[in-house]
Specification:
Number of domains: 2
Bound molecules: pyridoxal-5'-phosphate
Strand order of the largest sheet: 1-2-3-15
Radius of gyration: 21 Å
CATH topology of the largest domain: Aspartate Aminotransferase, domain 2
Structural class: alpha/beta
C-alpha cells in the first residue's frame, strides 16, 4: 500500500494533474500545455470549456441539479425525444455511466427472454469485448484481465469471435436459450476493432430470423464519433437496444439505453431504476451537446478531420517495420504496433500530447469532435516520430 495516497490503488496514473482546458488544449498545474487527442477517453465531445456549453450548464446548475425520478423531468423527455429522432428507435432509459447502460441492456435481454418463457436466457457476447466493470458487465467482457479475481462470473453469456458469421450460426443451431446478441459496433478498449458492415448486416438478419434482440454497445463509438450519430448507421441497420454514455454529456456523466419497438416496453414499473439517472443537469448537458453538435456540423467535422488524421498517420508510418495496422473510422482511430507500447503514453505526454494505449499495443486516438485539421496534423507530427524511435530502440 502506498503510504501517501488516500486513494485506492485502482489506476496507474501518469505524473501530471490537469488544471484547465480550452478546445483541444489542456494545461497542467505546472503550466505545461498539451494537445488532447484522448478527450477524457472519448468523453469530451465538445472539447474543454466550450463557450456555448459552459453558460448553459451554469444556467442549469442555478435552476435545478437534481430532483429524483419521483417527478416528471421535462429535460429527460426532451433528450429522449432527440435520441429517438436521431436513432429511429422508440424509448430511452437514462442512467449515469456506460456500465449502467449495459447493465440495463442485459436486464432487458433477460426479461425479454423470461417474457417469452425462457427461464435461463443466454446472451451472445464477444472475444475482446469491453462492457464495463460491474459483476455482470465484466462477465460479458471478453478480457480475462478484467475478470480475474472476481469470479464467480455471472452465467448466461455465450462467447464468439468477432466478424465470424459461421460461429454465430453455430450458436443459433446449438443454444436454444439465446435471446440476444450483444456487441460493440467498434470495439474500443479491445483495440479499435470494427465489426464489418457485412457482419453487422448478417447479425441483424440472424436476430430477425430467431427473434433475438440485437444490442449494440455504442458507449464509445456512438454520439457522432465516427461521422454518423451512431456507428451502426454506416451499415444501414438498426439495433433493438443501444447503450450510450461517454460522449453524450461532453464530460457530465450521462448514460442512456435506447430501445427499438421490440425492446422498448420490456421494462415496466418496478423493474429498474436509479437515483441519479436522468437528473436535470445531466439531461441539459446531453441536450446542449447534441444541439451544439448539430449547430457546428460536428458529424461532418469528425468524418473529415478523422480521415485527414488517418491519412496523415498512414503517410508518415508507411513502410515502418513494427506498425501492424492503422484502423478506425472518423475520430476513433487505432495504430496497432507489433509489440506492447505502454511506454509511449509517458513519451507522448513529455512531447505535449495526450493519447492512450489499449489492448497493450494499440495507440488510441479519440479526440474531441471539434478537433481541426491543423490540430490533427500536429497530432501526426508529434506522434509519428515517437512511434518510429520507440520501434527502432525496442526489441519486438
Ligand atoms: C467505457 C465503456 C464502457 C463502460 O463505461 P463506464 O462509463 O466506464 O462504466 C462500456 N462499454 C464500452 C464500449 C466502453 O467503451
Amino acid at each position: 500500500m502506498s503510504v501517501e495516497s488516500p486513494l485506492m490503488n485502482t489506476y496507474g496514473r501518469l505524473p501530471i494533474a490537469l488544471s484547465h482546458g480550452r478546445g483541444c488544449r489542456v494545461w497542467d498545474t505546472e503550466g505545461r500545455e498539451y494537445l488532447d487527442a484522448l478527450g477524457g477517453i472519448a468523453v469530451n465531445t465538445l472539447g474543454h470549456a466550450h463557450p456555448k456549453l459552459v453558460p448553459a450548464l451554469q444556467d442549469q446548475i442555478a435552476k435545478l441539479i437534481h430532483c429524483s425520478n419521483y417527478y416528471r423531468v421535462p429535460l429527460q423527455e426532451q433528450l429522449a425525444a432527440k435520441l429517438v429522432e436521431l436513432s429511429g428507435l422508440a424509448r430511452v432509459f437514462f442512467c449515469n455511466s456506460g456500465l449502467e447502460a449495459n447493465e440495463a441492456a442485459i436486464k432487458i435481454a433477460r426479461k425479454y427472454g423470461h417474457d417469452r418463457g425462457i427461464d435461463l436466457p443466454e446472451i451472445v457476447v464477444y472475444e475482446r469485448a469491453f462492457h464495463g466493470r460491474s459483476i455482470a458487465t465484466l462477465s460479458a467482457t471478453g478480457n480475462p484481465k478484467v475478470q480475474k479475481g472476481f469470479e464467480p462470473l455471472v452465467p448466461g453469456f455465450v462467447r464468439v469471435p468477432l466478424n465470424d458469421v459461421a460461429a454465430l450460426e453455430d450458436v443459433a443451431r446449438s443454444r436454444p436459450n439465446v435471446v440476444a446478441v450483444f456487441l460493440e459496433t467498434i470495439q474500443g478498449e479491445g483495440g479499435i476493432n470494427p465489426a464489418r458492415v457485412d457482419y453487422l448486416q448478417a447479425v441483424r438478419r440472424i436476430c430477425d430470423e430467431r427473434g433475438w434482440l440485437l444490442m449494440l454497445d455504442e458507449v464509445q463509438c456512438g454520439i457522432g464519433r465516427t461521422g454518423k450519430w451512431f456507428a451502426h448507421q454506416w451499415a444501414d441497420i438498426k439495433p433493438d437496444v443501444m447503450p450510450l454514455a461517454k460522449g453524450l454529456g461532453s464530460g457530465v456523466p450521462v448514460g442512456a439505453v435506447v430501445a427499438g419497438p421490440k425492446a422498448a416496453d420490456v421494462l415496466q414499473q418496478g423493474n429498474h431504476g436509479t437515483t441519479f439517472g436522468g437528473n436535470p443537469l445531466a439531461m441539459r448537458a446531453g441536450l446542449e451537446t447534441l444541439r451544439i453538435m448539430e449547430e457546428e456540423g460536428l458529424l461532418d467535422n469528425a468524418a473529415r478531420v478523422g480521415a485527414a488524421l488517418k491519412a496523415g498517420l498512414e503517410r508518415e508510418l508507411a513502410g515502418v517495420a513494427g506498425v501492424a495496422d492503422i484502423r478506425g473510422q472518423g475520430l476513433m482511430i487505432g495504430v496497432e504496433l507489433d509489440r506492447p507500447c505502454g511506454v509511449l503514453l509517458q513519451r507522448a505526454l513529455e512531447a505535449g500530447l495526450l493519447v492512450s494505449v489499449t489492448a497493450d499495443r494499440v495507440i488510441r486516438l479519440v479526440p474531441p469532435l471539434i478537433m481541426t485539421e491543423g490540430e490533427a496534423s500536429q497530432v501526426v507530427e508529434i506522434l509519428c516520430p515517437l512511434i518510429k524511435s520507440f520501434l527502432a530502440e525496442t526489441p519486438a
